[in-house]
Design a protein that fits this description.
heterodimer; A: 327 residues; alpha/beta; Rossmann fold; four-stranded antiparallel β-sheet; globular; B: 313 residues; eight-stranded mixed β-sheet; 33% helix
């Protein structure tokens, strides 16, 4: 992949997000996340529940739930502009037309009392200034593009199956041909055969439209299928980052290795699974030193005291660990 | 010798608006004691209904369930109560299958109250014994489900199923709601317990890697019917039914060396309401011939222990 020479479309620098409430105190959801995505490539954000993946996506879109959520620091640069400094009016113009998002759960992302056709129309009218007739025609085309016959234009979401609804959500996200697409677990709620339909469709559309993508998932198989680069996220931090092919062969962070060892292997079932002991730390009470330290079998005194930095281990391969391992 | 549990031509139909819904349609198989049978298939293929019928949470419409040589298809009340202690279920969603008002202690004590005549002290000991077995720390005994994470909640669910010494457990997607690192912990726990207590599992899941890991035999279902039944190794090495092939090829594998040929299915699952004669998969099958639409294929044994439902195999 010749990703090195391409220009960066989105870069996130030192992003931190907190949620606070009276009952639980302050939860540090994202802690100093930095990454960048080159034009036309796909970056995967992998991690478990509560790692801060979706919060990162919400920060880019500027839709972190208020007032409990707050972006504490960081810079989110899209095409040379810091999205955090833009006024809401400007942001609304970008959101949906230049950056759009496919949400995880198609059952709740659609408006249940509006036809699917009209929901696609809405985006077109808002951003592309199309007339009513044009919007209807274009929305019909979009439905066909995602593999839904345009005769179903006037049907409601409840008349569609899960896979079909997710296609509608994708059609809405792609309506304005965004330059940048955030897909938050786009196939998690779907069956495998439907998942493979949707993934290959996203891949095709990405190629024809040249869209760049941030893909959020917990499924390493999906990452292998879709992503050029990958960031492994733990407790709101990137613990390992790099080219997926390289990382697959040379993974170095104990958490990444643990994730791969926790997966049952389709080709070899005799091997016993080696789960990571313990569980994710409480974001209101993160451990001192390395965030993974309480679950790590290679933990040293240094790991308990000092927080490791994300350092370049090899060219383009970053690891946040004092004692990187080999699988 | 008769097998531990055998099912013959089991059917479960539901009445619905549009007609008769064939949730489980003519399913036959057998399980040996101490083994695991995996049931795979996509949403709506009838795998959960099958599990529920097996342990009498639902009554079957037709067919037979034979447990240790005894016909238990329609047990009387007394026998049903006995069977309930021998056949248990672990549910998918530990968030909704536990009573939010019960502490860990109460949740684990409840099955003992119903099924066993124990003194207070004995019950207490038993609860702690179970907690240790499923890996719940003693200090959690008075916590409520909402204070615990998904993995620990699922451990309570497993503890509840185990507390009354069952012989057969239906595990309905027990790890689907959990993160991979926790999923591996629970899978290992289930295997350890199986070895210790010589339990028989029916493991229902949509995750093929998980089913391969845990099962001895695998049943692949499509629209209420068994389309393939074989030993786990054999099924993955040599899948014969076109649906099984497509299903196996659809799984994304976290491996860069192995770029496999993808079979992408057209369309979606058709309706299980009043299915037409002919193969139920025919409309999505790349190899479908005219015969597939007119004649209903039978499940037949193509090699020893490998059963397939397809005209063209």
């Amino acid at each position: 992949m010749s990703a090195e020479n391409k220009e960066v479309i989105l870069s996130v620098e030192n992003l931190s997000v907190e949620y606070s409430s009276k009952d639980i105190g302050t939860a540090k959801a994202v802690n100093g996340m930095s990454f960048s995505i080159k034009k036309g490539t796909t970056l995967g954000l992998v991690g478990e529940t509560g790692a801060g993946k979706t919060t990162t996506a919400y920060s880019i879109m500027g839709i972190v739930p208020k007032p409990q959520g707050k972006v504490v620091s960081g810079k989110i640069e899209f095409e040379g502009r810091d999205l955090r400094k833009l006024p809401e009016r400007e942001l609304r113009k970008i959101r949906g037309s230049k950056i759009s998002m496919i949400f995880q759960d198609p059952m709740t992302a659609l408006n249940p009392i509006d036809t699917v056709g009209r929901q696609i129309e809405e985006v077109l009218k808002l951003h592309d200034n199309l007339s009513h007739e044009e919007a209807i025609r274009k929305a019909g085309e979009l439905l066909e593009m995602v593999g839904i016959p345009s005769e179903r234009y006037n049907e409601y979401p409840h008349q569609f199956s899960g896979g079909m609804k997710q296609r509608v959500v994708i059609a809405i996200a792609l309506a304005c041909q965004p330059e940048f697409l955030i897909a938050d677990e786009p196939t998690t709620a779907l069956d495998v055969t439907i998942q493979s339909q949707i993934l290959s469709m996203i891949n095709e559309l990405k190629q024809t439209l040249g869209t760049s993508m941030l893909l959020i998932t917990h499924d390493l198989g999906v990452v292998a299928e879709m992503c050029d680069e990958v960031c492994v996220v733990y407790a709101g931090q990137i613990v390992e980052r790099g080219n997926f092919r390289h990382i697959y062969k040379n993974m170095a962070h104990p958490y990444t290795i643990g994730l791969f060892n926790s997966l049952p292997d389709l080709r070899n079932s005799s091997q016993k699974l080696q789960p990571i002991p313990g569980m994710m730390p409480d974001p209101t009470d993160l451990p001192k030193g390395c965030k993974f330290q309480p679950r790590c079998q290679y933990c040293t005194e240094k790991c308990r005291q000092e927080e490791p930095k994300l350092l370049e281990l090899e060219d383009g391969h970053f690891v946040r660990c004092f004692c990187p391992q080999k699988r | 010798m008769d097998s531990f549990l055998r099912v013959e031509h089991l059917k479960k139909y539901f009445k619905s608006h549009g007609g008769i819904l064939h949730a489980v349609d003519d399913v036959s198989f057998s399980i040996e004691e101490g083994k695991t049978i995996g049931v795979v298939g996509e949403s709506g293929c009838g795998k959960s209904t099958l599990g529920r019928v097996m342990i009498h949470l639902l009554d079957s419409t037709d067919g037979k369930i034979i447990y240790k040589g005894e016909d238990v298809t329609k047990p009387d009340r007394k026998r049903l109560s006995e069977l309930r202690s021998e056949m248990q279920m672990i549910f998918q969603d530990p968030y909704s299958s536990l009573n939010p008002k019960y502490t860990v202690f109460q949740a684990l004590e409840e099955p003992l109250l119903i099924q066993q005549n124990l003194k207070v002290r004995e019950r207490e000991e038993k609860v702690y014994e179970i907690m240790e077995m499923v890996g719940l720390a003693e200090r959690l005994v008075n916590t409520f489900p909402h204070e615990l994470d998904g993995g620990r909640r699922q451990r309570i669910g497993i503890g509840r199923a185990l507390s009354i010494n069952p012989r057969f457990i239906v595990c309905d997607e027990p790890v689907s709601a959990l993160d991979v690192s926790i999923q591996a912990q629970i899978l290992n726990l289930l295997q350890e317990i199986q070895e210790k207590m010589n339990l028989t599992y029916m493991f229902i899941t949509h995750d093929l890697a998980v089913v391969k890991y845990i099962s001895d035999k695998i049943l692949v279902m499509y629209l209420g019917q068994v389309v393939e039944f074989a030993d786990s190794e054999e099924l993955f090495a040599n899948p014969l039914n076109p649906y099984t092939k497509a299903l196996l090829s659809a799984v994304p594998v976290p491996d860069i060396e192995q770029r496999k040929e993808r079979v992408i299915l057209k369309g979606e699952v058709t309706s299980p309401i009043d299915p037409k004669p002919g193969c139920r998969f025919a409309s999505r099958c790349a190899y479908a011939t005219e015969a597939c639409f007119s004649q209903t294929p039978e499940l037949r044994e193509v090699s020893e222990g490998h059963w397939v439902r397809c005209v063209n195999v």
